[in-house]
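pinging the channel bc i need a second pair of eyes. not urgent but kinda urgent?? the chain im working w is below, pasted from the shared doc
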Amino acid sequence: MSGRGGGTLDPRIAYRILKALSHGGASYIRRLVRECRVGPATLLQYIKVLERRGHVTTEYAPPHRLVRITERGRRLLAALEAVLAELAA
């Protein structure tokens, strides 16, 4: 995943983040770090790029940052799941 919005992302990590957000609708960074099995710095880098691309939104609720998946993010997740299903067939 590269191009518009800056930064190149590993689609496997982006998928895990979007999938985690799709279940709960919103999540705090700490929970996403645990659930996605990535370090905090890596997660924040991905969140920043995904937000620039319109796939997630963030809201600062001191002392935490809340992350939500957008409709655009849900469409990307569906596309990634379709590719995975095709590969598994």
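so Helices lie at 11-24, 29-36, 40-52, 71-88. and The mean pLDDT is 90. — does that match what u expected or am i reading it wrong
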